[in-house]
Amino acid sequence: MKFGKVAQPELIDFTLPETHPKTIELLNSYEKSRTPNVYVGCAKWNKADLKGFYPRGTKDELEYYSKQFNSIELNATFYRQFPAEQFEKWKAKTPKNFKFFPKLGQEISHWKRLQGVQDAVNVYLDNASHLQEKLGTIFLQLHANFGNKNFERLQNFVVSWPKGIPLAIEVRHPDWFEDIMVFEEFTQLFEEHNIANVLVDTAGRRDMMHMRLTNNEAFVRYVGANHPSDYTRLDDWVVRLKEWNDLGLDNIHFFIHQNLEVESPLLAAYFIKKLNKELGVDLKIPNEENNQQMSLL
After folding, report:
1. What is the model's pLDDT at position 82?
2. Which of 11, 12, 135, 191 has the fewest Cβ atoms nearer than 10 Å?
3. Could you give phi then psi for residue 113, rounded to 5 degrees?
């Protein structure tokens, strides 16, 4: 993932911003002290990106990946519309506790820019629904040039989204964050319609670390910089997620990217170990022995 990549990550202040006051208010409205539902994964499962992750002779990458992680941020669905049969095959290959978090297609978000997309959305949902209980939160990633002048399009999309199907939305244009009134307007819209407000932790776009949750879901897309600071940044996230869980956060969906994805499983293993200890969960540490070997390469 190249979004937000910088040449010198050591010059970036990666300190997590304070939790937004409305996040605290929202989380305080939920019951406290519950063990959260935690899903951690990578963005891809193919060997070309996750070099060294798969043991020699691995025949089915998804089958192996899904025994190491409990989720995947499914970016493949952004690039083309997959038929129902493909979703059924993915479902059949994965364990019962595994979840897919698929991205809406670029036809919807980038080509048509949320206008006249009802038919495309319906086809997408009809097909993705074949994941059944393994369908996690679907997420919409808007183009970086989709600014707040398009608020009405975003509003219409949110209002028309089918109730009961979890959705997270990632806005990227700086205008959504720079104008306080605009920020308040779209985050209130998300909160009213139970839409998760995606947090993106990447070096070159610290404005996207708004720390404003809009429902009982922290949907975090973490982008490492292939730098030693990637690990201390994850330490900070563990502390923050523990704070949010203590306030009432139930659902943590955390997806780890890298500029060079080869290191993503290493970061994920490190992060999961910390989460297990701090949150009292018991996620599998992905491929521990193999990751140790990778770290020596």
Report:
1. 96
2. 11
3. 55, 45
